[in-house]
Amino acid sequence: MEQHSVTSGPQRLDALKAKIREASALFLGYPVSKDFDYTPLYDFLKYPINNLGDPFEDSTYKVQTHELEREVVSFFAKLFRANPKDHWGYVTNGGSESNLYGLYIARELYPKAMVYYSESTHYSVKKNIHLLNIPSIVIRSQENGEMDYEDLERTLQFNRHKPAIILTTFGTTMKEAKDDVSKIKGILRQLAIQDHYIHCDAALSGSYGAFMEPRQAFDFQDGADSISISGHKFIGSPIPCGVLVTKRSLRDRIAKGVSYIGSLDTTITGSRNGHSVLFLWYALKAMGAEGLRRRYQHSLEVAQYCRTKLRELGVDAWSNEGAITVVFPKTSEALKRKYQLATEDVTHIICMPNVTKAHIDAFIEDYKTDMEKVQEPVFEELAF
Ligand SMILES: *Cc1c(COP(=O)(O)O)cnc(C)c1O
Q1: 240 within ligand 1 shell (Cβ under 6 A)
Q2: Pick the CATH number of 13-34+289-369 from 3.40.50.2300, 3.90.1150.10, 3.40.190.10, 3.40.1370.10
Q3: Which of 3, 49, 78, 374 has the fewest CB atoms within 10 Å, measured from its CB?
């Protein structure tokens, strides 16, 4: 009877911890920062923190971190050049929920609209459009992953009698391409489509978009109506999280009061994670905008280094402007597995802030060994 517990609970946890530590040591292919330290926040794990309700409204449940949540939203609203008197948002479970929310507001504003999104759009968007049951059209992508504006214009023209919801991406998943929001705004203006809404999915690049030189158009002043980011990507968090920022005036049109919580039911989920708010707030307080800028500079430098090193091996490595993602032809299965490299038609390395030049050097060494292995049989054949 006792035999089933050969390994005790604590042993299982130790083994799991070791496995997770090992798995997170090498990865280069996913946009996740690992250089955080939230140990000063441990005591907060003793409390059932729950941020249910609208963070900008009073609620009867007081074990919450709404005040910090408002500061997190305001931090990004400022970074995204939102109107200081007309912004709103909340901390979500991640970029996917933030995208769902943006599309939700858009559909409530324009129930008869059509959504336009590009081939390179994140998979969460297709699912969200399906959930919301909005008709949609896929727009072609250019070779670099950016939306094909000519295709967008042609397609919009065919449907110009309908309101348009444009889902732009600021940092596509594979190539970190950025759709130009002001160019899209210009197309809408030119076609005289007045009923339109632009949601910018900036899950990855939104956290450093404000620091790009030259500037790239993605924020509220450029024409976005809502912007989403993921908190566990560039900033880093032990729990996945995200932020959605929009205009308060837009939220007001979908707000409904709920007496049970004494607040407004303006968020997708009821109970909401109050701990991830603490993590984000803590990280932003520690770094500030300047710290984020420095993190971005570091990532840019490492990406440049990675491109140079790969090119020295004769590998055709490239990046979109201002991107911290290095794109190159598909690698071997062994390398892909070892470094957890996401691969579609190409492979990429994302130089997140925790990735260093030493990290790249180790990868390059493996890449070299791998190239030699692949070439051996070819030499043998030639020898005969
Ligand atoms: C990661 C990502 C998402 C999804 O974000 P989650 O936080 O994983 O839900 C959406 N869009 C883009 C472009 C992303 O990179």
Answers
A1: yes
A2: 3.90.1150.10
A3: 3
